[in-house]
């Protein structure tokens, strides 16, 4: 990561954490967030997924929300996900779901958080749907991995998690989870983490990302490679071809609103491509992380504002 990009990211995340800025953004900035947020409502999000499916793009739906303060909020998010699963089954869209453990109550009461997540995974299994437990900041890394392992031990194997390539621990985590046959989404990582736990330079993150992809594919684990970076996309294609790994043994994942033409192109080329589709009213934390990833994302929003 260049000095300029690091400074941009740190500055934007610091500004975004200011409660006054957040209040103003939520009040006046929702129109700008439409670049990355599919809809306020489930019905609207399902319609967007139908449009993606027509282009050969699969989806994972994320009902936005994190950092709750009361357990009744967690119950509300749990129920929203149960309705989301019903909506997917009823509409027959090609989508699974992604959720954040913090929105299910993990930080407030780990057992209640686990029970909420388990209820969602159990219901998803009834209609053969997959649940991805997203990875948040490092205070939740081990707890999230432990939740997924516990679910698998209890026979709920329609669930996987996320490994972030910028964390120093990720190679060991990926190796252990692959041996346990737990499906992984591999990402660079989007949270602000110190050098004691995370790589600080782009080249290091890219090298580790490639290492993780090779590790999981070699283990025969169905792997989701979540990246917009052509270095990662091209490397994955070449690695799979060289190793004789079929295209249905992995998928690419990209975010809603970013590189949509490339997503459609990958589908036409015969690759499995899944779009991460967030929806709901609690969009601010997700939106600011997307803007902070790189200055180009901010310019995308500015251009979108004038169309």
TrEMBL record:
Gene3D superfamilies: 3.20.20.220. Its EC number is 1.5.5.2. Pathway: Amino-acid degradation; L-proline degradation into L-glutamate; L-glutamate from L-proline: step 1/2. It holds the Pfam family Pro_dh. Its cofactor is FAD. Residues 45-297 form the Proline dehydrogenase domain. It catalyses: L-proline + a quinone = (S)-1-pyrroline-5-carboxylate + a quinol + H(+). Keywords: FAD, Flavoprotein, Nucleotide-binding, Oxidoreductase, Proline metabolism. It comes from the Bacteria. InterPro entries: FAD-linked_oxidoreductase-like, PRODH_bac_arc, Proline_DH_dom, Proline_oxidase. This is proline dehydrogenase. The lineage of its organism: Bacteria, Bacillati, Bacillota, Bacilli, Bacillales.
């Amino acid at each position: 990561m260049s000095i300029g990009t690091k400074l941009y990211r740190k500055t934007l995340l610091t500004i975004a954490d200011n409660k006054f800025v957040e209040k103003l953004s939520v009040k006046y900035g929702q129109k700008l967030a439409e670049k990355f947020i599919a809809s306020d409502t489930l019905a609207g999000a399902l319609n967007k997924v139908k449009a993606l499916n027509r282009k050969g793009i699969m989806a994972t739906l994320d009902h936005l929300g994190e950092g709750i303060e009361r357990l009744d909020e967690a119950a509300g998010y749990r129920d929203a996900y149960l309705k989301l699963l019903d909506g997917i089954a009823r509409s027959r869209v090609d989508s699974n779901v992604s959720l954040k453990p913090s929105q299910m109550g993990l930080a407030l009461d780990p057992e209640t958080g686990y029970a909420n997540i388990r209820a969602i995974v159990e219901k998803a299994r009834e209609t053969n749907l997959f649940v991805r437990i997203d990875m948040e900041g490092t205070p939740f890394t081990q707890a999230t991995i432990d939740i997924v392992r516990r679910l698998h031990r209890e026979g709920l194997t329609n669930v996987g998690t996320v490994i972030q390539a910028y964390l120093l621990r990720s190679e060991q985590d990926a190796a252990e989870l692959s041996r346990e046959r737990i499906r992984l989404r591999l990402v660079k990582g989007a949270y602000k983490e110190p050098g004691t736990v995370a790589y600080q330079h782009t080249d290091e993150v890219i090298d580790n990302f490639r290492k993780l992809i090779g590790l999981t594919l070699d283990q025969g684990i169905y792997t989701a490679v979540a990246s917009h970076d052509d270095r990662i996309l091209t490397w994955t294609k070449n690695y799979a071809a060289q190793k004789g790994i079929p295209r249905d043994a992995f998928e690419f994942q990209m975010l809603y609103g970013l590189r949509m033409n490339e997503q459609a192109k990958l589908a036409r080329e015969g690759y499995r491509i899944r779009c991460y589709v967030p929806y709901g009213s609690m969009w601010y934390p997700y939106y600011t992380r997307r803007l902070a990833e790189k200055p180009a994302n901010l310019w995308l929003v500015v251009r979108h504002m004038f169309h």
